[in-house]
Design brief:
The protein is α+β, with helices and mostly antiparallel strands. The protein has two domains: 47 residues, no CATH class; 167 residues, no CATH class. The chain has five helices and nine strands; from the N terminus they run αααααβββββββββ. A hairpin with a 6-residue loop joins strand 4 and strand 5. Helix 1 crosses helix 3 and helix 2 packs across helix 3. The chain starts with a helix and ends with a strand. It comes from Sphingorhabdus pulchriflava. Pfam families: RskA_C (PF10099). One of its GO terms (cellular component) is plasma membrane. Keywords: Membrane, Transmembrane, Transmembrane helix.
Length: 228
């Protein structure tokens, strides 16, 4: 029986250790009875083994200064009363989460011949404490950007997503829904700015977005775009 996207996600989450105790026990029991599920789990386990030698490397101070300068062109309003300390690097685990989600979105049925797949761009957009807040994957050929909120809280304000390419100018990609995944169509004129090395950032803003396209809230999460 062919695995569903939910089955694939469960196998990946089991390999990554993202399931709670009850879910993990149920998934492990399935390994003995479902060869396809066991095979999918083994694939993700192999990927995780391949990633183990990776060491965390924090971006240079110049990168964070560039983000801060791009986003803070106006005085900030802090909706929590204390400014969040920005997470300073992608972990291998958070990148793996983005990899799982990207694979789910772009996966094609293995029994059907398909053309060469485009290179997918991914980002783990992180918050304080090293926990990934949002996973993102982007298809440059179609302009489809999938946003998957994992843990994102902006209080009474609303999260707005920004892209910061090499010119250091923050450009709004619009508001995102913190409660569920969604696919956004990136306008043609904006697509050249979404590439490897460009930076995503999220700020809390009033309903409808930052006035005049200038961020007013603090950066609560950010992450660099990479390839898979």
């Amino acid at each position: 029986m062919r695995l569903t996207d939910e089955d694939i996600a469960t196998a990946g989450e089991l390999a990554l250790g993202l399931l709670d105790k009850a879910e993990a026990a149920q998934a492990r029991a399935r390994l003995a009875d479902d060869p396809n599920f066991a095979s999918e789990h083994a694939k993700w386990s192999d990927r995780m083994v391949a990633m183990e030698p990776l060491e965390e490397e924090a971006p240079s101070p110049a990168v964070w200064s560039r983000i801060d300068a791009a986003i803070t062109s106006q005085p900030r309003q802090d909706n929590t009363g204390t400014r969040l300390r920005i997470w300073q690097g992608l972990t291998a685990a958070s990148f793996a989460v983005a990899l799982v989600l990207a694979t789910m979105l772009w996966r094609q049925p293995e029994t059907q011949p398909v053309p060469a797949q485009p290179q997918i761009l991914v980002a783990a957009i992180g918050a304080e404490g090293g926990r990934e807040s949002v996973a993102a994957n982007y298809n440059p050929q179609t302009g489809a950007l999938q946003i998957i909120p994992i843990s994102l809280d902006t209080g009474t304000l609303y999260p707005e997503l920004w892209i910061i390419p090499e010119d250091g100018v923050a450009r709004s990609l619009g508001m995102i829904d913190p409660s569920k995944p969604a696919v956004h169509s990136i306008p043609q004129a904006m697509r050249p700015h979404l590439h490897k090395g460009a930076l995503f950032a999220i700020t809390p803003e009033p309903e409808g977005g930052a006035p005049g396209g200038k961020a007013t809230g603090p950066v609560i999460a950010k992450g660099a775009i990479d390839t898979i």
